[in-house]
Design a protein that fits this description.
Arc Repressor Mutant, subunit A, three-stranded antiparallel sheet, seven-stranded antiparallel sheet, 10 helices, alpha+beta, Jelly Rolls
């Protein structure tokens, strides 16, 4: 039995202007919907936009660029702007398809190197591959798009925009399979390491008054103490403990500018319940006690060589 969409009539969003941004490209969706498995033919024609079909059941013939091509369940195929094409269903196994169409326009050159997304959209736009392999992501995306666009529950519009953006990306991937290399894993890992360290710093920043230790901080980002320590050395060039101390001293400097707070209150707010330890650490790092630093308005005078 062929899989059938959850709806029984073609659905088209002619009444909803829908634009998506894809790197330096922008796309405008024109229509989408589906046909249930039955015989049909649309005869030779062409468009000024991209038209795509995903076969969810049956088979048929797709004619484009002067050649006949067989398409079947799981295939996605494309008619790019200006190409004469025709779709004919098999009478023995009629096709059921999802269809959608969109424009895709480059917004001009951006400064710096093109992103991986820009490269993907460029390859998709200029490609000569007409039929792509089955991608497991496509059918759930199309079903979700139909469901959200017809039920229109609260928040449906941004959901549909996100689904439409991903639909173009997944289609482009299917039709440029093997043409583009993925992003270098090293670059991905560096970016991931920076995000982990940033998340750990954010957790420390939000909890400076609490009793923090490397183990507790590491647990918040689901890493071992050793792994987190290594990432801090890699990204920040310091230890977790040193970063925590710097964050606490930065906070202390801000709070000391408030004359209504006592030095003891500032110490506690920065996670140092022991005033003596706070004073010693502050003086070691900034060259003056918290009280002196406050009196001098936060100015730290570095002695000259002759004064040393």
């Amino acid at each position: 039995m062929p899989r059938r969409p959850p709806l029984h009539q073609p659905v088209q969003l002619w009444d909803v202007p829908l634009s998506v941004s894809l790197g330096r490209f922008t796309g405008q969706f024109l229509y989408w919907g589906f046909y249930e498995p039955k015989w049909w033919r649309n005869y030779l024609h062409e468009h000024s936009f991209f038209e795509l079909c995903y076969v969810y059941a049956g088979e048929g013939r797709f004619t484009i660029d002067g050649q006949d091509r067989v398409v079947g369940a799981g295939d996605v195929f494309i008619a790019r702007p200006g190409y004469v094409h025709e779709i004919v269903c098999s009478r023995r196994k009629p096709m059921g398809i999802y269809f959608w169409s969109h424009t895709l326009t480059a917004l001009g050159q951006r400064e710096g190197a093109a992103s991986a997304l820009d490269d993907l959209m460029q390859a998709y736009t200029a490609g000569r591959v007409w039929i792509g392999p089955c991608r497991d992501e496509l059918e759930p995306l199309l079903m979700a798009l139909q469901r959200e666009s017809t039920q229109r529950r609260p928040g449906w519009r941004p959901v549909v925009e996100g689904l439409a953006q991903r639909l173009i990306i997944e289609t482009a991937r299917a039709l440029t399979e093997g043409e583009l290399a993925g992003e270098p894993m090293a670059a991905v890992l560096v970016d991931s390491h920076e995000r982990v360290v940033a998340a750990a710093c954010r957790y420390m920043q939000d909890n400076l008054a609490r009793d923090l230790c490397v183990r507790r901080i590491a647990e918040q980002v689901s890493l071992s103490e050793r792994h987190l320590t290594r990432l801090f050395h890699e990204v920040r060039g310091c230890t977790v403990v040193a970063c925590l101390a710097q964050l606490r001293l930065d906070l202390a400097c801000r709070l000391l500018r408030d004359p209504t707070r006592s030095v003891k209150e500032v110490a506690v707010a920065c996670g140092y319940p022991n005033l003596s330890y706070f004073t010693t650490l502050f003086k070691r790092r900034l060259g003056a006690s918290p009280s002196t630093w406050r009196i001098e308005g936060g100015t730290h005078f570095v002695p000259t060589m002759s004064e040393k």
